[in-house]
Amino acid sequence: MAPDYFDTQMRRTDLAWTDWPAVETFLRDELICRVAVNDTPFPYVVPQSFTFTGDAFLIHCSRFGRFSRLLHEDPHIGIEIDRPVALLKAPKGQNTSLEYYSVIARCKAITRLNTQDVIAHQNEALGKFRPEKDYTAIEPGAANQIVAIRCEIESLSAKKRILADGQYSPPGQPQAPYLRYPFERGASVSGLPEEAFDPHRFSRVK
């Protein structure tokens, strides 16, 4: 069942990605998001590794940088995640395009500085990257260098343009005779080999 924050209404209805289980799988698999915070006169955008929890994105940053300062001043942020799939070419120049998946979320950032709160946040975030849980405990000194940020989702929308789903040209226009050139698969959790999650890898190192 889709969460209440999932917004499926958009101008280009042919591009609306409304399959929540597929969107959720995408968010749990992707590695990098882009986070926009309010600044003057331009937004400040940073790439972040992230963990999607179902109702929030978990990220972190240094306590001493511009990003943490701006979050303290205004916790309202935008998050974007995308995956290019293929280059599309057609005889008409305006029909050169891309296949892609993308998600945009509006969130409110809740920050934590307490050492134990930061460690708990980081342990939750590590579940995506180290489900084998073979690591030693996070040291308080390391936790005291970062801000734990829980980006609670207020609204989230998703788009996709995939030829296999019949999404060709804008509504009312003839279907363009596209040629499709897939990109190599990008970085993702599911793209890692099985040995990346071997809980005994370090115990075998001599």
From TrEMBL:
InterPro entries: Pyridox_Oxase-rel, Split_barrel_FMN-bd
Pfam families: Pyridox_ox_2
Source domain of life: Bacteria
PANTHER family for this protein: 5-NITROIMIDAZOLE ANTIBIOTICS RESISTANCE PROTEIN, NIMA-FAMILY-RELATED PROTEIN-RELATED, FLAVIN-NUCLEOTIDE-BINDING PROTEIN
Name of this chain's protein: Flavin-nucleotide-binding protein
